[in-house]
Amino acid sequence: MPYLLSFHWGWLVGSLFLGLAMGWISVVQRGNGTSKVTARWLAVLVAALVGVALAHVVPGRFGYWLDLGLIMFACYLVGCTIGAWLRDIVVSRSQPAAGNAP
Amino acid sequence: MQKLFRWASKWWPGLIPLAVMWGIAVWNNTLPVEADLAARSAAALKDTVLDRTRIAVDGRDVSLVAQAFSEEGRRDAVAAVENVPGVRLVDDQTRLVQEANPFVWSAERDVVRVTLSGSAPLPAMKGRLMEAARKEVPGVEVADQMGLARGAPLRFESAAMLLLDQIGKLKDGKITISDTKVSLSGMARDLGGREAISAALKNLPEGFSVATNEIKAPPYVFQAYKDPVAATVTLTGYVPDNTVHAAISAAAARKFFGEKVVDNLKSSVGAPASFGGSVVAALGALSRLSTGTLVVSDREVKLSGDALYEGAAADIRAGLGKDFPKNWQYKPEITVKPAAGPVDGTVCQQLFTEILTKGRIRFEPKRANIDPDSAALLDHLIETALRCPNTRIEVAGHTDADGEEGFNQALSEKRAQAVIDYLVKAGLPADRFAAIGYGSTQPVAGNDSDEGKAQNRRIEFLVR
User: Fold this and answer.
1) What is the pTM of this model?
2) Between chain B's N and C termini, which has fewer beta carbons within 10 Å?
3) Would the CB atoms of B4 and A81 count as touching at under 8 Å?
4) To 10 degrees, what angle do helices A9-28 and B15-44 make?
5) What region, left, alpha or beta, does residue A77 occupy, with left being phi > 0 and alpha being psi -120 to 50 degrees?
């Protein structure tokens, strides 16, 4: 893991920024997201992939690609969370001000 | 939390660029990761002792193919690769080097090269053995045909090193270690090489023993060449030590009365038993030849040349064999020198005087027995006597002034008669000779010095 992080840090930082941007947008985006059922299925899929990666089941290059993909995905999720949270703070500060306006 | 789920449900569009990034990352990084891990794995194995190591990286999985020299070394190597940061799985394809039974190592020397073959226990030791061989025979090609195997006996390296030290002493041959048994065969380079190798083998490490030692020594050669034109006798080849050298030189000086002895002998060990006595006897035979070559090679004596007359040739052919020990071989190739033309009595007298000026007939002290060292001189006297068959010759004996006159008189007569007996035995008619003894009455030098006395003790040939 430390090796993967240090070797691919540029890509991971990229994923993190992509996540930040996506999270920033997601707070104010209108419309429906994925349905609960789809989200659950996606969660199961990700959990299964994580399990497969930890168990070292996939051999050779595919195994390495899976590990890299999951780590980039994790960074993306972290980025999304931070982005969404920051945006939420910004939005909640500005909304009362807008509401109090005459 | 509710909010988080609501936001999260809208994060999926970002997965598309993420997937694209992932694809590009994979495309760009797979080969560098594999190369990096291969380099790190190779570095991790730097201090382990392995043979035929091959590292293949697939993604982050390392496949390690190698031959190890012990189970512990094998496990250590696999663990070392497993501990390389970034390596996910190690496909362990290491094997132990096969065990040789018996463990055989050999060094063979021929005309052009030294070949090391068989098994060595470790790659590093293989290198050290090669280096030692190169140092031992500088300028000679050293070929490495050694494989690697487990099962070397304890202290193998010191035994092999000691044996490699001997390879320089061989002209050709093979040295083999089979488990703890050492076998040697071949030919030593120099005289004494065989003995030096045998001595070195006593220092073999504990546990090792010599199974067979069939190193042969080069022939121990002694040569003498009698050249009547230059009036020299050249001695070449080897003598075992200074004592024998001195004995041979002294004998040569006595036996070759008319020739200068050129001594080119060298000292070396390795002489066969009874070497000195046999060489002295053979030199006696050579001295009787007008021209000839003597070659003593180990226990074989070859004598070739021209005797002065037929009787001497027969005598040399038959007589010398019994002077050698039983296990010696004697190969005479004696021919007879063409007889010189007849001369009259005056010339004969000149020739006798000339011969007897160069050398004296020697006798045992105070007795009338002729010393065998005088055989060559007597042969020349006989040859001369044969050239003037119609003369009568007076053989006169003289003594020095030591002792009683009566004894000296009798001794001089007996010695003169002994010489005549010798001549008659050689085939000359007895009636041509008369023995006369003068005792000490006709000295040719003063009797007050050893040198003068020696000159007075003499036999003279007088043609009548």
Assistant:
1) 0.62
2) N
3) yes
4) 160
5) alpha
